[in-house]
Each structure stands twice: as C-alpha cells, then as structure tokens.
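Below is a filled-in request sheet from our internal design queue. Each sheet records the structural input a requester submitted and the sequence that came back. We keep these sheets so that new team members can see what a complete request looks like end to end.

REQUESTER: design group, bay 2
PRIORITY: normal
MODE: inverse folding
CHAIN LENGTH: 647
BACKBONE (tokenized):
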C-alpha cells in the first residue's frame, strides 16, 4: 500500500509538471521569450525559497514553475535552432533524404508527399513536396530535390501557421524531383498497406456515405465524406467521433486483450504486446494529436501493469503533452491538440470530481460528462469553428452508444483481416442510421456564433470553463458541483441563442487572389457569392462567413468556368442553393447578358459582370473593377480581404 500511495503522489506531481510545461510553451508563443523566461525563473526561485522554509504546497509550485521554465527554454531553442534555420533556406535548392510518412493524391497526376528525414548537412526536418507521376508510397525511402519555400499565410489560408503546428517549415516551390531509394521501414510499409487494404475493403462492401463514415471513424480519413454529411455530423454535436481518440482505443484494447488473454498467459507479456499494437495503431490512424494522446495514455496504463504499479490519468495526460510537444512545440497552436487535450482533461481530471463513484457509467453521469466536456472545450471550438450546436447533449446521449457499437463492428471487421463481412454490413446499417439522425437534428434551427464578430462570447465560454474547473477543485458536494457545470453550459447556450437572433449588418467583402477575386454580399441575413474568375478559391472563406452570420442558404454567381467552380463550392458549402452563370450547363442556371434574377430577395442583373441593387446601395462587379455606390476600385488594387459596411 505504501508503494501505491507514493506512486499516486508521484503521478500527481508529473501531471502538474506537464501542465507547467504547456504553460511555458504558451507563454513564449503569445507573450515573448525574454519576458517569459525571466518571469518563470523568478517564480521558480521564490518557490524554492518558500520550499526551504517548509511552506505547504511549495514543492508543487517549484515543480510547475520549473517545468514551465523548461518548456519556455525548449520552444525558444526549437524556434531559433530549428524553425528559423529551416526558414532561412527559402529560395535555395535543397536535397532531402528520408521516409514518406504520408501520401495524398491531389489530382490525377499530382501527389502531395510528406517526408521525414535529413538535409545533406544532417539537419532533421519534416517537409511537404509535390510530385507528378510518382509511384512511391508510405514507408518508402526517397530522395527529394526541390527549391525550398516557406509556407505563407494568405487571405484564404493560414498556410504558415498550420504547417508550423505540424513541424513543417519549408516545402517545395512547384514540383520536386523525387527518387525512390528503397523500401524503407518494413513495419511502416506494412501499416500503410493494411490501411489502404482496409479502406479499399470497406469501399467495396459499403457504398455511399455510410462507407465513408466508417472509413473516417476507423482510419481517420474524411476525404470520402461529402460536405452535407460532414456538416450534419459536426452540427449535431457528434463531430468528435471523427477524431480517433479515447473511445477508439478503449474498444480496440478490449478486443485485443480478450484475444491475448486466451493465447498469451503472462500478464507482462500481454502488456508489452499491447504497447506495440497501440504504437502501430497511432501510425495507422494518421498520427494526429488526438490518437497519439490516447495511445500514450493507454500505453502508460499498460506500462504501469508491466512494472506492477497503478496508472494515474493526470500523469499520463501530462506525459502525453510533453512527448507530443517535445518533438514540435508549435503543435499547441493546432485545433486538434487543444480540443483533444481539453476534452481529455475534462473527462479524466474534472469529471471524476463532479460525480459520485457509484453513479459513474449511468445516464446521469453520461449527461454530466457531455456538459462538462462541452463547457471546457467550448472556448477552443468557438475560436476555430465559430459555431456551437444546441442539441449536443441529445445527440451524444442518443447516438454515441450507436457509434460505439458501429465502431466495434468496424474493428471486428478489420481484425478479421477484412473477411468477416456480416460485421461490416452491420456497421454500415448503424452508420446510415447515425447519418440520418444527424440530418434530422441539423434541420432544427441551431445556434451559431461568429468569433470574429463576437469575441466577448469566447470570453464568456472561458469564464464558464473556469467556473467548472473551480467547482471541481474546490467543491465538496459533488451534486452541487455537477449542477454548477450543467448551469454553466446552459448559460452559454442561452447566450448563444440570443446572439443568433441578431441579424448581421449588410456588407460586401472583397477577397482577391492571383486569378481574380470573390465578392461576398451579406444582405438581409442572406449571402450572395460572386466568383469573378477565381475558380472557387474562396469557398472556405464563404463557408466561414455563412457560419459566422448564421446563414442557411447561399446563392452563387460565376464569371469563368462555372461547372468546375460549382463542384468546388458543393464540396465545401452544403448550404449552397442556386448557381448562376452567363452560360448555364451541368447544374448551373443560365443568366445571359441583359437578364435579371431575384436571389435571396436581392436583385441581380448580368451584363459583362453583375450589378446588385439592395436597400438603396448599388454594386457593380466586373473582371477588372469593383464599383460600390459609385466609387470605383481596381480589382488588382486589393492587397488583402477588404470589408465595406452597407449601413
């Protein structure tokens, strides 16, 4: 008992150390290197002085502040000696030798490869290259010769920030010369083949979006899902099932441990085998922060069994955070990392303090879990996705058990070598039922909140999360603490409902790019998108605009390749209604010069461009110019996204 008690104390300390480590990284990224290191050094010194005087809890203060100082030093050194050094190579020709860790077919002949390896001088790096007619696959050793370029943030895509969160600081400028050197790592190639075989087997047996849903929850590949299905699942509050994480690992571990119990008697050997399988599954599922975090936490549990110790969730969570960010500290800026770790913190550290032991696992406990995870993760979800579903609790209570059974059948199919056909057919039926029910929920008016327009709402969510955490830490009566958690979530939802009733102000937003520009007109709570030669490059921005302003229907007007542009918007904008173009075909409504239509209660006339009349304001959108209320702007004169209010 003494060993277990000391182990528990140690694991709690390691959990606090992980929290301090993340605090140091965040401080450097958002405050600065020198101020953060000075502050953490002073706090460590003061805490050590109080510890020598025997002050209570000073050991935890020393541990947290020292870990924060170590995290600050780590991210500072990584930025100076790795990130800045690689970015300095921009414009020069480089040669990288390494292993392909990801391969995505962008078009019929063009592939995007992610290579992890070394430069000629031995510098380690992870890079993205584009290659044509390439026959390499995941696990192959390659040599890539290319002109290096730093990923850039543009008006349409935060390329540099997203790449940095993945540890990528240079990529190929144009097509790279890729040469296959050998087969590379056999385990990695084997896992890649198993992944491709599993996806192909599911697609052969399960058609439509049900099969795409199974592939997404099993292999973490959402490329086969269409925009309608993706939005239906996310807007119903069930989108977390797409992130391969704790639920998936628990089900996989249960299946494999049942088999190992039959064939492998020694408990330590079973634990060692499970650790290896978890590592392989992390690669199989794409290596996202959520699956890596879940595998590390489960791996620590099996490691504790191997050494005869008791595992501790906060310890495992802190260790997972340190392991992931040690390789790339900038990972803390990604949505997957923040949402995954905040959800794990809510489930493993906060929820047990809100519910009685005898109540865990029941319907009441599941409801409290839904509200707890929602409240803690809400600030990050609002910042990255600009929307919240009001029916998240109902969707999780009704559909999460169905998804668990569906995932169990899919795992059974995969573990049988994709031979147990009845299992995948049962999973297909359940997946279809989940998609239909999510569609029903999304037809009920939901609440969306735009962060860029209502930053105070994120502050409200952060305050609600803080209240829940304080209730868990300080509350002695667990029923009262759980009531506080549920109340905080309901206040957030009620506030969102009120804000969603506020109609957005009329405005026009110009989004330039290298081919043309896109104009987004928000009028009377509706959205009209004018794609003037852009070819659909602003489709993600249009989707974000519709989310932020709670707009359920969008009309599209095109000058250029109308069919290709329409298909691109259809893949990303499920609220897309009618599509107009001077020459209509393939689902595009014809709108010859001199004709006019009324779209979303707005009068639009076509004539070598589009003229828009709304509420006393006039717009003229042509290939070379934009006219707003008589004031003419050159189309190539916009250097960034420009928004003009029509009030």
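RETURNED SEQUENCE:
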């Amino acid at each position: 008992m003494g060993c277990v008690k000391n182990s528990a104390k140690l694991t709690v300390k390691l959990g606090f150390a992980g929290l301090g480590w993340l605090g140091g990284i965040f401080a450097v990224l958002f405050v600065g290197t020198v101020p953060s290191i000075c502050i953490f050094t002073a706090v460590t010194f003061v805490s050590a002085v109080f510890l020598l005087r025997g002050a209570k809890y000073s050991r935890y203060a020393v541990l947290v502040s020292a870990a924060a100082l170590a995290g600050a030093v780590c991210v500072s050194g990584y930025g100076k000696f790795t990130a800045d050094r690689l970015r300095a190579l921009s414009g020069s020709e480089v040669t990288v030798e390494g292993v392909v860790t990801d391969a995505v077919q962008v078009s019929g002949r063009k592939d995007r490869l992610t290579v992890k390896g070394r430069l000629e001088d031995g510098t380690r790096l992870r890079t993205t290259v584009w290659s044509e007619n390439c026959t390499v696959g995941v696990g192959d050793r390659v040599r890539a010769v290319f002109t290096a370029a730093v990923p850039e943030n543009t008006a349409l895509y935060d390329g540099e920030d997203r790449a940095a969160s993945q540890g990528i600081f240079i990529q190929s400028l144009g097509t790279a010369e890729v040469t296959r050197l050998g087969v590379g790592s056999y385990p990695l190639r084997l896992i890649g083949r198993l992944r491709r075989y599993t996806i192909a087997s599911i697609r052969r047996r399960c058609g439509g979006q049900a099969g795409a849903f199974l592939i997404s929850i099993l292999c973490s590949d959402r490329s086969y899902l269409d925009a309608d299905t993706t939005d239906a699942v996310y807007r119903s509050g069930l989108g977390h099932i797409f992130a391969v994480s704790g639920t998936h690992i628990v089900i996989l571990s249960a299946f494999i441990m049942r088999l190992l119990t039959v064939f492998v008697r020694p408990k330590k050997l079973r634990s060692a085998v499970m650790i290896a399988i978890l590592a392989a599954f992390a690669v199989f599922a794409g290596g996202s922060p959520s699956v890596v975090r879940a595998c590390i936490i489960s791996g620590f549990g099996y490691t504790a069994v191997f050494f005869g110790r008791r595992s501790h969730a906060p310890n495992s969570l802190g260790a997972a955070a340190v392991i992931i960010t040690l390789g790339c500290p900038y990972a803390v800026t990604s949505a997957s990392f923040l949402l995954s770790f905040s959800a794990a913190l809510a489930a493993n550290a906060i929820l047990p303090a809100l519910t009685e032991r005898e109540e865990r696992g029941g319907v009441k406990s599941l409801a409290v879990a839904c509200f707890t995870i929602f409240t803690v993760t809400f600030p990050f979800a609002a910042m990255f996705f600009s929307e919240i579903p009001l029916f998240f609790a109902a969707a999780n209570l009704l559909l999460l058990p169905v998804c668990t059974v569906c995932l169990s059948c899919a795992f059974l199919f995969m573990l049988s070598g994709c031979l147990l056909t009845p299992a995948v057919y049962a999973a297909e039926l359940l997946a279809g039922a989940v998609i239909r029910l999510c569609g029903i929920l999304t037809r009920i008016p939901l609440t969306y909140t735009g962060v860029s327009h209502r930053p105070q709402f994120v502050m409200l969510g952060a305050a609600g999360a803080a209240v829940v955490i304080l209730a868990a830490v300080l509350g002695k009566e667990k029923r009262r603490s759980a009531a506080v958690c549920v109340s905080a979530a309901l206040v957030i939802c009620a506030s969102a409902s009120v804000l969603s009733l506020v109609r957005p102000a009329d405005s026009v937003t110009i989004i330039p790019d290298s081919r043309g520009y896109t104009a987004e007109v928000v009028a009377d709570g509706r959205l009209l998108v004018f794609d003037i030669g852009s070819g659909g490059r602003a489709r993600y921005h249009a989707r974000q605009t519709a989310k932020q302003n709670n707009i359920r229907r969008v009309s599209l007007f095109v000058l250029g390749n109308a069919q290709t542009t329409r298909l691109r918007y259809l893949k990303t904008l499920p609220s897309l209604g009618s599509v107009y173009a001077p020459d209509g075909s393939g689902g595009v409504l014809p709108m010859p010069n001199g004709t006019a239509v009324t779209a979303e209660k707005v009068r639009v006339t076509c004539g070598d461009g589009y003229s828009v009349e709304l509420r006393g304001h006039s717009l003229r959108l042509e290939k070379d110019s934009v006219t707003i209320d008589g004031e003419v702007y050159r189309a190539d004169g916009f250097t960034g996204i420009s928004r003009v209010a029509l009030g």
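SHEET NOTES:
- The longest strand covers residues 93-105.
- The CA atoms of residues 156 and 541 lie 6 Å apart.
FILED BY: M.R.
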